[in-house]
Amino acid sequence: KWLMYTYGAMANAFSGQNRNDSANVFLLKAIYQAEQLRNNKMLAVYFKSLSGIQLQLGNYEKAAAYGRKAIEFIEDDNRALTISLANLGNIYSKLYDFRNADLMADSSLRVGKRTNVTNSIGRNYVTLGYSRFKQKKYTEALKYYKTGLEYALRYKN
Q: pLDDT of 45-104, one tens digit each?
């Protein structure tokens, strides 16, 4: 168990230094250990981290694949689920896959509202606004952007 956490910590340290190749290596080692331990919570965390690194690198397809994998391992953690769904919505926006971007943002909003988790509400409305903006639906986009701003300010996120 401590080996898994050590690999994860090393991945975080390398990621903090923008040494993404090394961070990826240690995340994969941490994932292997988490799989051996059947630790779904840490699998979700490590796959989410891999997704974030791939997003930073502009590897959006890989980021989406790792993001979907992270969601598979989330159990009884509505906060983690709302964040992961919101992240995936953002990634799909980068891929110009607005159907899936909207689906992820809407799903994150539904989970958040159902469970009173407010950490990603503003962000989800911004994703929905960006989707409309790229589709040249400017009036709708502005409505979503304003709503996102209101929620972000209200919940200080």
A: 999 999 999 999 999 999 999 999 999 999 999 999 999 999 999 999 999 999 999 999
The Cα diameter of the chain in Å comes to 52
How many Cβ atoms from other residues are within 10 Å of residue 34's Cβ?
24
Picking from 127, 126, 130, 83, the residue whose alpha carbon sits closest to that of residue 108 is 83
* CA–CA distance, 123 with 120 (Å, rounded to integer): 5
Residue-wise DSSP of 77-140: -HHHHHHHHHHHHHHHHHTT-HHHHHHHHHHHHHHHHHHT--TTHHHHHHHHHHHHHHTT-HHH
pTM over 0.85: yes
**Residues making up the chain, counted from first to last:** 157
Q: Exposed, middle or buried by CB within 10 Å (0-12, 13-18, 19+), for 51?
A: buried
The Cα-based distances of 125 to 103, 118, 131, 153 in angstroms read: 12, 12, 10, 13
